[in-house]
Fold this sequence. Notes:
By secondary structure, this protein is α/β, with parallel strands linked by helices. The chain folds into two domains: 152 residues, Medium-chain alcohol dehydrogenases, catalytic domain (Quinone Oxidoreductase, Chain A, domain 1), CATH 3.90.180.10; 143 residues, NAD(P)-binding Rossmann-like Domain (Rossmann fold). 32% of the residues lie in helices and 26% in strands. α3 packs across α4 and α9 crosses α10. The longest helix is centred in the C-terminal third of the chain and has 16 residues. It starts with a strand and ends with a strand.
Amino acid sequence: MSLAVLCRALGPPERLSLEDVAPAPLALGEARVRLHACGINFPDILTILGKYQHKPDLPFTPGVESAGTIVELAPDVAAWRVGDRVVTRQRGGGYAEEIVLPAAQLVRLPPGFSFAEGASFLVAGLTAYHALVQRAALCPGESLLVHGAAGGVGLAAVELGKLLGARVIAAASSAEKRAVARARGADAVVDYTAEDFVAAVRDLTAGAGADVIFDPVGGEVLVQSLSAIAWGGRLLVVGFAGGTIPALAANRILLKSCAVLGVRAGEAARRDPAVANAAVAALQAYAERGHLRPHLCASLPLARYAEGMRLLMDRRAIGRVVLLPGG
Length: 327
């Protein structure tokens, strides 16, 4: 038996339970991984609330990324060895002491990364890479505005944007968050709680607006972004962490001749694995050069899953929150 967090009824994190579960059988092509860290992502919260597009059957274990050590392999798996340190990516099951999944979904833990860093690396990195490179084709010299810049995905977008040669403007709600964004490469920061971010972005871009806007927040922030975007710009709709899904005025899209691009890195990977493989290879290369290392703000024992999820829900997390099985 091993421990796993189970969602038996949709609702807040406090409705989840930590229970003993029987080991899952190992099928051909699969690996069993003893987990040492599990990353908490906003889709995990939306999933347990029943508000995410993926709606697993009850009961289920949340958690789309984790990291650990391979402890068992199906006889037909030749690419891995027992004892290998890996990052796992899956649609669920990460809040647990062990997971069984197809070996094709394993990624080698980047050199020098802790398990906690590995468990909070792929989802944010893949989202940022898919958005900025594969969707927006961000070019050197362009201006990039990142909303929610101190969140896990936002910080990945800030650092990756800088690595791609963009001038990065980071929008965040506190001095501490803006300082972390600056440390990750932001050229300028905006306090959207104290100033009009549209006016600030225009000032910072000599009136032109941002060429690319990365928005994981949604709500009124997304609506106002149409006033902050440059002619021919690209507005990336990454998520709705603010809790509201807005309607956009089509006439403003027309007047700016801009593109509004949806970003679903996970679905893109399922539809075309080559897209994900290219992104993972690029992210691993960055990590090996010392880039895109997650900023960890909290590492909690697995039993404190509700507390960890609340850090994201209450927007108190700066960077990433991870759970530590056995901690």
